[in-house]
Specification:
The chain has 550 residues and is an alpha/beta fold. The chain contains 18 helices and 21 strands. The protein binds adenosine-5'-diphosphate. The site of adenosine-5'-diphosphate (ADP) has 19 residues, from α16 and α18.
Length: 550
């Protein structure tokens, strides 16, 4: 199948390209005027894979038309022989049966189009001459010209009607201009195209609609490409990009003028594992849009393509990298949650079973201790989960008061003794440190999260420091460890939801990747800030700054 171009070469300088469905007229003075326009008009048609039909009338006969066209189209005889072009006198076309019958003539044009399409041509280009028309037929003929507009609007047809100036009065000229989109007139030694007001109105309405559609198209968040098949020897070898929107320019990292007219292979995101040619062959044959997902470098795209006309395609690209990453993270998270809950649960179950089998007073405290620790761990995990759900549903309600960090720190570490290895923690808090303005429960959560990370991600026995001090008129709390640290590329992400470093995952240290996310949200709810510094191999320091109580 041939890829049809939406715009056709008219062959006429003053008009250039025109869309299918164009209906124009020429006012001529003599035979030369007719040849001036019609010869290049049909030459362009024969060069553009179209079928042609030239209906002649006085002052230009079939023979003269044929020889003038033959002078510029060397293989005209062959085209005539296989009816690629027909050149015939008006009475063989308009007045078949001895009179003008509008329906029969219109059906005749339509039949020519169907025949041309069936033979693999793009469409039909015709001309008719009205010199035969007698005044008595004028009203019928104007009606016919009007009807042509309705018929050819959706067909691959170009129609050029020629009117002899000598035979048209002012009324006729007005009628003719009104029923055609352009009128070609000879003025000041050259041809000019006069637009009818109807055409101008339609063109304005179209421009307005085009403007609205373009606004929509340009503001689509999907990268959108309109392209056509590029054929070589009847085989599609690539695609030529005809139109793109701003989102596609951003995706391709190129400007529109660097994209249009280029091949898809050069411009479409370099995608691994997608054979575009076979994909669009599938699209060409499909009634429904075809969807697929592909990766290009580090990005993942969801692609949707369909074919609005044979050989033409619309392809939409959506960057779904973040969405896919979030889905993967969510899956990892759910796996981690179930693992995190299952481990203490099996410890509880094993301890209880062994107590049932051997209710020995000697092992009882140890077993019960294990059960209590496992329960505490599960409670902490469940608290994290409900905290995160609460954070997602709106601002954190705080019960603030002045908290003296000296007392708060000492009490907290004492309370944690059962659950964490608090012997590793060194606390330094200056005596004259102002109290912080905080919700003590939330503050405990912040400090516990940071302390347990510091203990968890460093070698057993190594020191963890909790230092407090002033930061201008605020109060700073730093938690420093001597662990493996965090590599610079991971550091900006440690506060992201579900983020865990590769190193943490590799060491098998348990965690859900939500502790620091919750910590930061709680700190910020207090109007404070949190930062992390780390030197791989030497340790990390998390620093929280909170407002002092007035
Ligand atoms: P998790 O439950 O995984 O500990 P967090 O949100 O508390 O989740 O921490 C996110 C990630 O940041 C951890 O998985 C770990 O990779 C890294 N991280 C946090 N604190 C430290 C630390 N003190 N030392 C090294 N890595 C840390």
């Amino acid at each position: 199948m041939h890829a049809t171009t939406p715009l056709r070469d008219s062959g006429i300088d003053r008009i250039g390209q025109m869309p299918w469905g164009t209906h124009l007229c020429q006012f001529y003075r003599d035979k030369d005027d007719l040849l001036d326009i019609l010869v290049p008009y049909f030459k362009a048609g024969l060069e553009s894979n179209e079928c042609c039909m030239w209906v002649t009338s006085d002052p230009l006969g079939v023979d003269e038309a044929t020889s003038a066209l033959g002078a510029v189209v060397p293989d005209l005889d062959r085209h005539l022989a296989d009816e690629r072009i027909q050149i015939l006198p008006y009475d063989h076309w308009y007045l078949r049966g001895g009179h003008f019958d509008m329906r029969r003539v219109l059906d005749g044009w339509k039949a020519r189009v169907d025949e041309a399409l069936a033979r693999g041509f793009d469409g039909v280009r015709v001309t008719g001459n009205t010199a035969w028309l007698e005044a008595a037929h004028w009203a019928d003929f104007t009606e016919y010209e009007d009807a042509i507009n309705g018929v050819i609007r959706d067909l691959p047809v170009l129609v050029a009607c020629t009117y002899g100036l000598g035979r048209c009065g002012a009324t006729e000229i007005i009628d003719v201009v009104g029923t055609h989109q352009f009128a070609l007139v000879h003025r000041g030694g050259r041809w000019e195209a006069v637009e009818s007001t109807e055409r101008r109105r339609v063109a304005e309405a179209l421009r307005e609609r085009e403007h609205r559609l373009r606004l929509l198209f340009e503001n689509l968040s999907s990268g959108c490409v309109y392209h056509r098949a590029l054929e070589d020897g009847g085989r599609t070898v690539d695609y030529v990009l005809l139109e793109v929107n701003a989102a596609f320019e951003r995706m391709a990292g190129l400007r529109r003028d660097q994209i249009l007219g280029r091949r898809a292979g050069e411009v479409m995101p370099a995608v691994h594992g997608v054979d575009w040619v076979s994909m669009f062959q599938r699209v060409a044959g499909a009634a429904e849009p075809v969807r697929l997902e592909c990766r290009s470098g580090l990005r993942t795209y969801s692609v949707l393509a369909y074919s609005p006309a044979p050989g033409f395609f619309v392809t939409l690209f959506d960057d779904v990298t973040e969405r896919r990453k979030a889905e993967e993270q969510r899956e990892d998270f759910l796996r981690a949650v179930s693992h995190d809950l299952r481990t203490p649960l099996s410890a509880i179950s094993l301890s209880a079973q062994s107590l049932l089998r051997r209710p020995d007073p000697e092992v009882l405290p140890r077993r019960l201790n294990r059960i209590v620790n496992a329960c505490e761990h599960m409670t902490a995990t469940l608290d994290d989960l409900s905290e995160i759900a609460r954070l997602d549903s709106g601002p954190v309600p705080l019960k603030r008061r002045a908290v003296d960090l000296g007392r708060f720190g000492a009490e907290l570490v004492a309370r944690l003794a059962g659950a964490l290895d608090t012997s590793r923690i060194t606390i330094t808090i200056p005596e004259d440190l102002p109290a912080v303005d905080a919700d003590p429960d939330r503050l405990e959560r912040i400090v516990v999260n940071l302390l347990s990370n510091a203990l968890k991600y460093s070698t057993p026995g190594s020191e963890v420091r909790l230092d407090c001090g002033r930061d201008g008129d605020r109060v700073a709390i730093s938690i420093t460890d001597r662990g493996a640290g965090i590599v610079p590329e991971d550091l900006p992400h440690v506060f992201d939801r579900f983020f865990r470093t590769k190193a943490a995952r590799a060491t098998g240290v348990q965690g859900l990747g939500i502790g620091l996310y919750i910590t930061r949200a709680l700190v910020e709810a207090h109007g404070g800030s949190i930062t992390a510094e780390s030197e791989p191999g030497r340790g990390s320091c998390f620093r929280v700054v909170l407002p002092a109580a007035s």
